[in-house]
C-alpha cells in the first residue's frame, strides 16, 4: 500500500489583503459563518480525498510533516484548534512522534494563549511573515500590521526559544527610492535567532499597483547574491533557491516537495501530489472538488531534475546513463563559471549564483538534449 505521510492544509482568511499577494485568500465577512463553511469544505474535501486515495491504492501513515499555510492561519484561533483536533482524530489521522508541524503566523495576528493551545496539539515550528523591517516599504505593500508588531512578534518567538523561520522578500517596490538595505534588516532579524530564513524574490503581474516602482533586474540580482553571501557567512546553508537554514533545520515539509515525494493537501486552492502515481491535484476555491492531472513519465522526469537542481538534493551525474559524459562536461563548464560544484561522488549542486539563473541552466540541459 502506498502511504501519505505529509499534509498541507490551506487556511484561506486574512484580516486585510496585501497588494502584491496572489495566494488564495479572502477577508471574512462574518467570521463564525465563514469559518463554519470552511470547516464544512474541509470535511467534504477529506471525503473526496479518501476516494482519490482508495482509487489509487493509498492510505495514511502517521504524519511526519503537517503544514498549516495560508492566508493567515494564526487567525484560525481557538475554533481552529478545536476543529483540527477533532478533524484529525475523527479521521484517524495520527501525527508521528517526531512530526514537524508548522504554522504560518502574521505579525499582529496571534495570541500567546491560543498559540499554547496549538502547541498542545503538536505545533512545533512557526513561519513568520516578516517581509521587510522597513516600515515605509511595509506600508507601500499594504501590510496591515505596524513595524512595532513585527518586532514584538520576533521578540516573543525568540524569548520562548521557538523553532521558527522568517520570511523576507526581495525586489520590493520603492527599494531603490528608499535605498533599502536588506542586509542590515537581516542583521537585525538575526538577533532573534531564527533557525531558518525564506527569502523570496517578489513576483507580480504587469498591472501591479506599484509596477513602476519595482527595482531593476540588476538591483534584484545584487540583493539576492548579497543576501545569500551574508546568510552563509552567518552559518545558514543555502539549501534551496529561496531557503536558508541552520544545519539540521531544513524544512522537512518543503524538502518533500523538492524530492518530488507524495504530499497530501486539503483546502481551497491547495495542491497535492501522489508521486508513485504521478498525480497532481488542485482544490477548487469554492467547493471541495479537485482538478486532477496525471504527469507523463517524461514530465515527471523533467520535474524531478528541476526540483533536484533547485535544492541541495542535487543531480547524480551517473544516473544519466549514456548521457553522463555530456552532463559531466556541462557540469565542468558551470563549475568554472562558479555556478555549480561537483562532489567526489559525482553529485552536481548549484551555488547561489547557479540558483539565480536556474532557468537558463535548465535550458542548457534542454539544448544538449540531456532532458526532453
Ligand atoms: C503563503 S504566503 C503567506 C504568509 C503570511 N500570510 C504573510 O503575509 O506573511 C507565504 C510567503 O510567500 C511570500 N510571498 C507572498 N506573495 C508573494 C509574491 N507575490 N512574490 C513572492 N513571494 C511572495 C511571502 O514571503 C510570504 O510570507
Ligand atoms: S497576509 Fe499574507 S496571505 Fe494574506 S494577503 Fe497578505 S501576504 Fe497574502
General description of the model:
The protein is an alpha/beta fold. The protein contains twelve helices and 15 strands. The strands form three sheets. A nine-stranded mixed beta sheet has the order 7-8-6-5-4-3-2-1-9, sandwiched between helices. α1 links the parallel β1 and β2. The model has no long low-confidence stretch (mean pLDDT 96). The structure holds S-adenosylmethionine (SAM) and iron/sulfur cluster (SF4). S-adenosylmethionine binds next to β2, β4 and β5.
The outline comes out as globular
Low-confidence stretches: none
Structural class: alpha/beta
Q: List the secondary-structure elements in sequence, H or E.
A: EHEHEHEHHEHEHEEHEEEEHEHEEHH
Average pLDDT across residues? 96
Please count the beta strands (DSSP E, at least 2 residues each). Answer: 15
Q: What name goes with the CATH superfamily of the largest domain?
A: tm_1862 like domain
Q: What is the CATH first-level class name of the largest domain?
A: Alpha Beta
Strand content: 15-25%
**Biggest beta sheet attributes:** 9 strands, mixed
The number of helical elements comes to 12
Total tally of structural domains: 2
Strand order of the largest sheet: 7-8-6-5-4-3-2-1-9
- Percent helix among the residues? 25-40%
Topology (elements, then pairings):
Blueprint: E1 2-11, H1 31-55, E2 58-70, H2 77-90, E3 95-105, H3 112-120, E4 125-131, H4 135-140, H5 147-159, E5 164-170, H6 182-190, E6 196-201, H7 217-233, E7 237-240, E8 243-245, H8 252-258, E9 264-266, E10 271-274, E11 279-283, E12 290-294, H9 297-309, E13 315-316, H10 324-336, E14 340-342, E15 347-350, H11 352-356, H12 358-367
Parallel strand pairs: 1-2, 1-9, 2-3, 3-4, 4-5, 5-6
Antiparallel strand pairs: 6-8, 7-8, 10-11, 11-12, 13-15, 14-15
The structure holds S-adenosylmethionine and iron/sulfur cluster (SF4).
